[in-house]
């Protein structure tokens, strides 16, 4: 099969392995960090799992907005790098850091000053709020650090230095795992802090991760080493030019994350067991979804480099290969999740018999939707954003979430009162709709454009 065979696609696979694998490994490590937290917290029971899941909805919302910001900015990083216009990279970094720090500061204020009020918006369960609020207040201090780490991490990928954030994530995972064991359960004479211990471990791991990334940037990557004077020299026209393309991505990710938080609101009001089941299912799926995110981010970088260099036909050709790989990987992952979920869940989490059953069924329903999610990741993050077709991708994604997914969630969860796995399955119709509605835009090649100023 020459279309995807290595012999006829050596350039594609060389670039893919150098870009996608470090990104996928870093995302896998980040997801593993969440898995470690949840497995260890899971030994404390369903209430602790659900409480941490609710508390992390705010972090999830922030990271999705940051993801949108830096994805939009990375379009220009990739295209300037492909065009060998290195002088403009610092200007782009100033825009990324400015927006990222403002966003993370706002979320820090909410998490630190209003944790109870935020959690009350999602759930009326006082036990969940009592456990989740202290956790949220502690991890809030990691928000600004996360914004900085994300900004440089995304930008290094765009210029082919994806191993730096991967290295930082490996060390962060190891530290978080060790500190979790010490602080959650009180090993080796440490105090038994439970959920608060997990929050402290996460905060320390994020601090070290940020330090490693900054050290690597300012010692070895001068193109991105912004200084205070760069912020004062930044031109309004640069902000306007970048935001014209990046703003729809920011709005897209922000309202998409808000849609996911709305789903969490529905699940939380269905019950603690239901919230715990969906939290575990989403976390397990995120471990495998790193493959899709690795491909999606690699597509954005590789297509963006080609478009920036004016190689439009090569960008279109690469895109066809990415879409084919996403389908193959999505089906493969779906089979794994469907097959292994009955064996993994009872061994990892402390749930009731009903909780095990609900979680396994939810995982199997989500496995069916996996190929569609993989395909949509490539289309939205890779294909459309690489060429700046961000308005269309925003309309596509938000219309499916808010016009299809959210109404279905409320109808199935509150009116029909269906089991959690049925609700998750019906919500997944929005992924199928997104795949069908996005296909004509991809085939039109209207996304394949060069954006950068020379």
UniProtKB/TrEMBL annotation:
Keywords: Cell membrane, Membrane, Transmembrane, Transmembrane helix, Transport. It comes from the Bacteria. CDD domains: MATE_like_8. It is found in: Cell membrane. It comes from Fusibacter paucivorans. The chain crosses the membrane at residues 12-29, 49-71, 92-114, 134-156, 168-193, 242-268, 280-301, 322-345, 365-384, 396-416. The keyword Transport applies. It is a multi-pass membrane protein. PANTHER family: MULTIDRUG AND TOXIN EFFLUX PROTEIN MATE FAMILY (PTHR42925), NA+ DRIVEN MULTIDRUG EFFLUX PUMP (PTHR42925:SF2). Its main location: membrane. This is MATE family efflux transporter. InterPro entries: MATE_fam, MdtK-like, YsiQ. The keyword Membrane applies.
